[in-house]
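Field notebook, page 323. I keep forgetting to write these up properly, so this time I am using the form the group agreed on. The chain and the ligand, NDP, are recorded exactly as supplied. Prediction of the bound pose follows.
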Amino acid sequence: KVVCVTGASGFIASWLVKLLLQRGYVVKATVRDPNNPKKTEHLLSLEGAEERLHLFKADLLEEGSFDLVVDGCEGVFHTASPVLFSSISDPQVHRISAELIDPAVKGTLNVLKSCVKFPTIKRVVLTSSMAAVVLNGTPLTSNVVVDETWFSDPLLCQELKEWYFLSKTLAEEAAWKFAKENGIDMVTINPAYVMGPPLQPTLNLSVEMVLDLKKDINGVAIANYTSTDVRDVASAHIQAFEVPSASGRYCLVANVTPIHEALKILKELHPSLCPPEICEHDTPSAPEFQISQEKAKSLGVSFLPLEVSLRDTVECLKEKGFL
Ligand code: NDP
């Protein structure tokens, strides 16, 4: 079976390509710069890559850029989207549009437009995010269970200047509208903060944040750590494609853990990851809210425990010289 993965050099996509090759798929993978070894070498050295991995150059903002790559595929995994948090802390509207919103929204529509042209495509799996789920105005208190029926409110994202949240919300919203209008069978995977050992040589943002876990994306102290391991996220994408009854959205959050518990685990793994002024305040606090795993589990998704995910992440960061 032939499938396409967009943004293949990224953190989640690299694991997705690895698992797809392991399962015997032929993978047509897009990267922005096929001549940059930092973006391609780790993919080309995967088991099965020589025989079954084909790299294509594609850009989210280039009309028709994905035609060649989705042609002949049965499944399309659209993961490419800018993951930018801190670099757009200042509300420069033109930068937000050009660097975040346009590649996310226009890029997604661009990929879907290519999919409409080729009847071989049976299903599209879109990597969305919990950022497109949680910000609907309902306060996240202890009796709240977030599930797939929630959809973030773009106006609220804008009001709160949560530009990344806005990009993922608008992209998923536009994707559902386009998919319904054009009869595309689409499933979305909505993970929260993705952790785990990176395959790529450079650090992606969510793993980099393990080095500074006490802060959230805007540098604000956070109460809870909501994460999922990258290997479970990649597997969930494949299950979303392979399980015929998969439909709609899937929230993917392994745990909602009080931040001090996560920091305690990190301290054991590498003391510098939990500075004393933070670790001393280890008053246990209950998770503020829950995220339903019911739908994800019905798809067959399993979740690695936080301890395992953090351990493997830290080990990998040590091996790669980041710690
Ligand atoms: P990475 O930054 O590692 O990967 C992002 C990918 O998108 C890269 O391959 C990047 O290409 C590509 N990309 C970005 N902008 C463009 C563009 N203009 N044209 C073409 N390609 C582009 O991030 P992740 O692997 O973490 O994220 C992958 C997906 O998962 C994203 O859709 C993200 O929103 C979503 N997600 C991530 C979470 C996380 O915590 N990591 C949580 C929830 C959802 P290049 O390598 O050339 O820069």
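OBSERVATIONS:
- The radius of gyration is 19 Å.
- The pocket of NDP is lined by residues 7, 9-13, 32, 39, 59-61, 79-83, 103, 127, 129, 168, 191, 193-194, 204, 206 (CB under 6 Å).
FOLLOW-UP: compare against the apo run.
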